[in-house]
Amino acid sequence: MQDWGDLREAGQHDGSLPICELRALGKRFDNVVALDSIDITLAVGERLGIVGHNGAGKSTLINVLNGSVRPSGGSIIWQGTDVTDGWTASRARREGVRCIFQELALVPNLTAIENTRLVHPSLRGFGWRRKAAELIDRKLSEIFPGNHPDLGVPIERLPIGQRQMIEVARAFTETEATARLVVLDEPTSSLSSQASELLIAFLQDNSQPRPSTVLISHKLRDILGTSDRIIVLKDGTKILDEPARLLERDRLVSAMGATTAVSQADTLVAQARTATKPAVVRDAGRSPDEIDLVAYPGEIVGFGGLAGHGQSERLVSLFAESRRRKSASSRIAAAFVAGDRQVDGVFSAWSVKRNLTASSLAGLAPRGLIRSGGERRMAEDWCGQLSIRCASIDAPILSLSGGNQQKILFARALATPASLLLMDDPTRGVDIATKQDIYRRIRRETLSGRTFIWYSTEFDELRLCDRVYIFHEGRIVGSFDSVDLTEEAVLQLAFRPRR
Amino acid sequence: MRLASAIRTRSALPLLSLALLLLLIFALQPRAMTYRGLGLLLGFSAPVVLATLAQMFVMTVGDLDLSIGPFIGLVACIVATLPAISPLLTVAALVAGVLAYMAVGALISWRRLPALFVTLGLSFVWFGIAIIVRPNPGGEAPEWVENFINLQTPVAPIQLWIVCVVGLAGYFILQHSKQGLLLRAAGGGAVALQRAGWSVPRARVLAYGLAGVLGVLAGLALVGITTSADPDIATRYTLVSIAAVVLGGGEFSGGRVSVPGSIAGAYVMALADSLLAFMNVPADWQVAAQGLILLVVLALRAFLRSAP
Question: Which among A164, A286, B173, B271 is least buried, having the fewest CB atoms inside 10 angstroms?
Answer without folding.
Answer: A286
